[in-house]
Design a protein that fits this description.
2 domains, mainly alpha, 128 residues
């Protein structure tokens, strides 16, 4: 089987969860549009009954879209957290890195002001 030539990175393999939420929102909108068309075209319903049914359909669509919106907001918050951690975090890849980071955090926590930290004698792990 011959391999297809690559034309750059595919945009759909990076965010499948986001695409599914977009598809969910589009499905909700399509269902709402269909329901409105059915209600509006039903000659058996009185104008009051149509208004009630349209209000119910609208409320259901709003509720469904609120769920999708909450999912998107949660995904965005998780993405921001993950990216911020990768950019600003202290990735510890070995046990020694974890111990060194914890030791640095402990030493930094001892100082309550910048002046105290700048007057402190540097600790190079040497014992006297």
């Amino acid at each position: 089987m011959a391999r297809r030539p690559s034309h750059g990175p595919r945009s759909d393999h990076r965010r499948p969860a986001r695409l599914s939420t977009v598809a969910q929102a589009e499905g909700i909108l399509a269902g709402y549009t269909s329901t409105v068309a059915q209600i509006s075209g039903d000659d058996r319903l009185t104008p009051e009954a149509k208004a009630v049914d349209l209000a119910k359909a609208h409320t259901k669509a709003q509720t469904d879209l609120s769920g999708v919106r909450a999912t998107v907001e949660q995904q965005e918050a998780e993405t921001v957290e993950r990216l911020a951690s990768s950019v600003f975090g202290n990735p510890a890849s070995t046990g020694a890195d974890v111990i060194a980071a914890r030791d640095a955090d402990d030493r930094a926590a001892r100082y309550h002001s910048r002046g105290g930290a700048t007057r402190a004698e540097p600790d190079r792990g040497e014992r006297r």
